[in-house]
Amino acid sequence: MKTLRLTSSDRAILLNARFFSRLPRTAIEAIVEGATVSTHETHDTLFRQDDPLDDVLVVLSGLVRLYRLGKDGREADVAVFPRGELIGVNAIFLDRRATANAQAAEPSIIARLEGAKLRRLAAEDTAVAQALLELLCHHGKLAEDCLAEDRLLTAPQRVANYILSHCPNGSESFSFRLPFQKSVLAGKLGLAPEALSRAFSTLRQSGVVVKGRVIEIRDRQALEQF
Amino acid sequence: MKTLRLTSSDRAILLNARFFSRLPRTAIEAIVEGATVSTHETHDTLFRQDDPLDDVLVVLSGLVRLYRLGKDGREADVAVFPRGELIGVNAIFLDRRATANAQAAEPSIIARLEGAKLRRLAAEDTAVAQALLELLCHHGKLAEDCLAEDRLLTAPQRVANYILSHCPNGSESFSFRLPFQKSVLAGKLGLAPEALSRAFSTLRQSGVVVKGRVIEIRDRQALEQF
DNA sequence: GTCTTAAATTGACCCGTATCAAACAACTTC
DNA sequence: GAAGTTGTTTGATACGGGTCAATTTAAGAC
User: Fold this and answer.
1) pLDDT digits 0-9 by tens, B111-148
2) What would the CATH number be for the domain defined by A2-145?
3) pLDDT of residue A75
4) Is B207:B222 a contact under the CB 8 Å cutoff?
């Protein structure tokens, strides 16, 4: 289901997104003008691997999972995009085809920006180009982190890392709520859901208490040295 | 060992690099002006994780391996850069610190471009910004490929993939020479050298013959379905 | 060419995690 | 609130690949 224009609340969310927050108002208006919005249920597919794709998607609310399919049908997540993230920037500067499948991991509202317009603006306005450069560098770093984690850490270590990345620095004990389902976290960390579950129970002996989506940390140091 | 200026042959190599080939001569001159060159032996370290780094390195010849260290001292390659590649673009647009260690994987000649200048040029010249955007998108895609491979494919499948990526399309049988040591290939594919060796011997039954650095493929179809 | 050192291979073993199956818990929907 | 659906946990098992050690092979040095 599509609506032609962004509502004012959609607009407000966009303005808060990291990508847009660095840009002058006029640039934002130029980018957003003509954008369309769509709503999606959990498990809806937004686009498929190898599909022609000349749009950038912005997650206004909800969550989008980007994954590739193996020959045998197995899925491997390559990224998970929360509210405010841009999806498909790579594609519009390369061959304008999706490199992976995208699906909503929960009920989501998605804005679509035209790739052609973004390319034009990037070529005309160095502020836009600059913002894109920073975005891509950030994504690059995240991808590097992810690859290194996969190759260096065991499942409990990856989970400990993830938990610590949510720790307000300085505090020794804290708790937070997972921003999505555990199965999504498992995918993001490159694990089967069962392995995530087992990792949590391994971490119990290091002071991690899991109650539903809420995670409580009693001893940060124990986690750090895991 | 450093030389202050690029030789004319260094310059020629730069002009052939994918990044520079899209740029007008004037832009290239502006970027390259003031660059320094250094030569390195195998295993020399170019920079270390978390070091301040406000340069972009260009591999003029040789090979550079980018890797992260685990707590236990294990190394995980995050990228391997052959001649013509740029290293450290992410860093100059983020916090100007290295996100990984870089070491020469064979005797190498490296050019250093100043990050500050590159940033300035990217902000002034949209052609430079454009070239950087395309470069980063390409790197992003490669990183995504790598992550997906790690998560979806077994060791023999990754090796088969690598071999096929060197197959001149259309040909049913062919052979080529590995552009670097097998241990480097192993790291690039996220494998221990032993695992690479075993993968090769598994692929022998699919018509892959390995003689030193030369790889011969007798039956492409068998490889593709592996 | 021979000597020396580094790289690659092979075997034995073990650890980590995927997979399958089943029990359980938590939401929906009516 | 009951019934069905979906998500999570637990156990048993199998497989892939890492690690260590011992050879074999290849590559540099003289």
Assistant:
1) 999 999 999 999 999 999 999 999 999 999 999 999 99
2) 2.60.120.10
3) 95
4) yes
- CATH 2.60.120.10 boundaries in chain B: 2-141
Chain B residues 10-69, Cβ below 7 A from strand D? none
Using CB atoms, pick whichever of B136, B146, B152 lies closest to residue A147: B146
CB contact under 8 A, A70 and B153: yes
* Chain A: residue whose CA lies nearest to B133: A133
Round and report the angstrom distance from CA (A212) to C1' (C27).
Answer: 12
Ranges in chain B annotated CATH 1.10.10.10: 153-224
Q: What architecture is domain B2-141?
A: Sandwich (2.60)
Residues of A whose CB is below 8 A from B134: 93-94
Tens digit of each residue's pLDDT (9 = 90 or more) over B55-65: 999 999 999 99
Calculate mean pLDDT across residues B32-47.
91
Q: Say whether pLDDT at B4 is over 80.
A: no
Contact B109, B62 (CB under 8 A): yes
Give me the residue from B126, B145, B152 closest to A129, CB to CB.
Answer: B126
CB A155 within 8 A of CB A195: yes
CATH topology for A153-224?
A: Arc Repressor Mutant, subunit A (1.10.10)
In tens, the pLDDT along B103-114 reads 999 999 999 999
Q: Do A148 and B93 touch (CB under 8 A)?
A: no
d(CA B25, C1' C7) / Å? 43
- Contact across the interface for B137 and A89, Cβ inside 8 Å: yes
Q: Is the CB of A192 under 7 A from strand C?
A: yes
Dist. CA A136–CA A128, nearest whole Å: 12
Q: How large is the average pLDDT for residues A127-145?
A: 96
